[in-house]
Design a protein that fits this description.
It contains four helices and no strands. It is mainly alpha-helical. It has a domain of 40 residues.
Length: 74
């Protein structure tokens, strides 16, 4: 039993290593940072959905554009 490969574990490892998943995680992290900042401004938790809508409306396009630009050569 212990020497056989676990298809679910292999599928999860494959998913976690995809570019799509890494981009999803990076975007989620940005939304959570935005949620924290905006919540601090108003003095209470604004909730994930409100932060998500606000971040998409005001910051997502610029964030994506910045991530798509090649790294500057030094």
């Amino acid at each position: 039993m212990g020497t056989e490969s676990d298809p679910k574990r292999e599928a999860r490892a494959l998913l976690l290593n995809t570019t799509l998943y890494r981009e999803f995680q990076a975007e989620k992290d940005e939304i959570l940072k935005h949620k924290w900042i905006e919540s601090e401004k108003v003095g209470h938790d604004i909730g994930f959905e409100r932060a998500l809508v606000d971040w998409i409306s005001h910051h997502r396009a610029d964030w994506r554009r910045a991530r798509q630009q090649p790294a500057a050569l030094t």
